[in-house]
Every structure is written in C-alpha cells, then in structure tokens.
Amino acid sequence: MLRSLFTSATGLSAQQFSLDVVANNLANVGTTGFKRSRAEFQDLIYQVNREPGGQTGPNSSLPTGSQVGLGVTAGTTVPVHIQGTMQTTNNPTDLAIRGNGFFKVQMPDGTTGYTRAGAFSIDGNGKLTTAEGYALQPEIIIPPNHIGVDISAEGNVLVKIPGQQNPQQVGQLQLSNFTNPGGLRALGSNLFSATQASGQAVDGAPGQQGTGTLLQGSLEASNVDVVEEMVRMIILQRAYDTNSKVIQTADELLNTTNGIKR
C-alpha cells in the first residue's frame, strides 16, 4: 500500500506540472510570436520481483516476469515551433516571418537575443527596435525625413525621401536559423538565447540559409490552440482526480489493516 501512495503522489505532481504548462500556453494566447509548449513525462525506475526470461525449471522460463513501476516524473517541456497565423496591422515596421528563422536583437548586456515577435518601432536615433528598445541586428537606421518605409520579402529596407524620385535602400534585414529551435532558452519578453542544444545561429537574408521570408505590415500570432489546450486541461483534471482517488483508497486499505485485531 505504501508503494501505491508514493506512486500516486508522483502522478499528482506530474499532472500539476503539466497543468502549469497548459496555464502558461493559455496565458500567452494573445502574445505575438509565442510558441506553445507541451510537457513530456518519463516513468520511474521499476522494482523487478521476477526477471523476465528467468528460469522456472530445467526447460522453462518466465515469458514476462514481474515488474512494478514506481510512478512518473516530468521529463522536459517541448516548444512547438509551428507557424502562427498572420495578423494584418498595416504598420510598416511590423514584420512577420513566413517560415523558419528568428530576428536577432542586441540585449542590454551586449549579448544576442532572438525573437519571432516582429512588432518593431523607430526610436529617437532612427533605429528599428523591439518594444523594449532592443536594437535589431544588424542595425537599420531610418532617416528622420523619410515619408515611407518599404521592406521586401527578402529583407531589403527602402525608404522614400522627399525630393528623391527613387526609394533609397538603408539596410538589409537578416534572420537567424538554428539546427534545433526547441533547444533555445526562453528569456521572457518574447526573447530566446542560443544554447548548446540549439546549436549556433546561422545568419542569412530572408529566404536563404533555410530561413523564411518577411511579410510587412503583419504580425505572427501565438500558435496556441485554445480548444486543444482546454481539452488537455480536462484530461489533466480527470487524471489528477483519479490519482487522488488512488491515494484515498490506499489510505482506507491502510486503516483497515491497522484496525485488524487478533
């Protein structure tokens, strides 16, 4: 009975962890460029009472043996990097990535961050920056007297200047791609950092090095499916209730055992 109490307790902990992941997904259903996650679990070590294939006689052996698991543990959280839907904003500095890749920005400490959220603005120095003021890399400087910004699918940044007939190119946007985007470390504020698991960033113009292309005047919405997360939440609730019921049953069996009198 004590083993069943411990096993069910691990089930409660695992379902709570999975619910935390679902809650974070639902909380970020409106976050630009957000990628939902799912929890992965692993069964714990087994107690082997009789080894599978063990000899039971001179010419016979056990076909299955006797093994009892000790519950479950939360393994990893797996980010699901599938494309979110495109939302039209008509803001010329809003950019969405159609396909693979991340925008590269400079963090306050000088390190590099990566993001799928393309809600950029022009700061007082003419730089394209994130909402937190982190400059896009390589830097794009928009002249103060511009009357229009045009960004092509390949990342060419063109501006219209009063008195000039043809637009002037002021920069070339680049995207960063990773061998394993799921290995990126989430920093919050829609930002990621590279890790050993993700591999080093491969930079290139949009449409090259395996990266996607850009869509100006649009943003990539969160890829969270509310209906799917709600269904998962119901399943978690049922699993949690069931594990708690096992603990109640085991406790009742222990009370029965303690009440036995000779």
Explained architecture:
The mean pLDDT is 90. The chain is built from two helices and 22 strands. It is an alpha+beta fold and 262 residues long. The radius of gyration is 27 Å and the shape is elongated. It has helices at residues 2-27, 226-258; strands at residues 37-43, 46-50, 55-57, 60-61, 66-69, 72-79, 86-88, 95-98, 103-106, 112-115, 121-122, 128-129, 136-137, 148-151, 156-160, 168-172, 175-177, 185-188, 191-193, 202-204, 213-216, 218-220.
Describe the SSE topology.
Blueprint: H1 2-27, E1 37-43, E2 46-50, E3 55-57, E4 60-61, E5 66-69, E6 72-79, E7 86-88, E8 95-98, E9 103-106, E10 112-115, E11 121-122, E12 128-129, E13 136-137, E14 148-151, E15 156-160, E16 168-172, E17 175-177, E18 185-188, E19 191-193, E20 202-204, E21 213-216, E22 218-220, H2 226-258
Antiparallel strand pairs: 1-6, 2-5, 3-4, 7-22, 8-21, 9-10, 9-13, 11-12, 14-15, 15-16, 17-20, 18-19
Helix pairs in contact: 1-2
